[in-house]
Amino acid sequence: MPLSQAIINVTNLRLRTFIGFNQEEREKQQDVVINIEIHYPADRSFQTDDVADALNYKVITKKVIQHVEEGRFLLLEKLVADVLDICREHPSVTLARVTIDKPHALRFADSVSLSLEYQA
User: Fold this and answer.
1) Which of 1, 26, 69, 96 is the most buried (most CB within 10 A)?
2) 3-class SS of residue 73
3) Distances 22 to 26, 52, 56, 81, 102 between C-alpha atoms, Å
4) Positive/negative CA dihedral, 106, 33, 83, 70
5) For the residues of 48-60, what is the DSSP string, one character each?
6) pTM for the complete prediction?
């Protein structure tokens, strides 16, 4: 059992993608705001101060950016599930949470969001 759980937070990653099933949504990219939380055991990285022993959030974020910006999604559920899968690829991840906001999806709301969570 690890002594120390590190928590990585990626806050308000703002990207553009094709999201939605209405004709206009399928033709024009929209803003999405992604928040990610990843937990992993950090005991070894504390001891060694070696990047090889840590979870590289830059690698994960680059994969998320590429997937979101190059993808086309009908449902927010699919987009969130795909991002969650990327976040939990590394075998040391013990918990991952992803929330994606679709700003201005509803006329009188700032945003609509959907969250999913994975726990090992």
Assistant:
1) 96
2) strand
3) 6, 44, 37, 21, 14
4) positive
5) H--GGGS--HHHH
6) 0.91
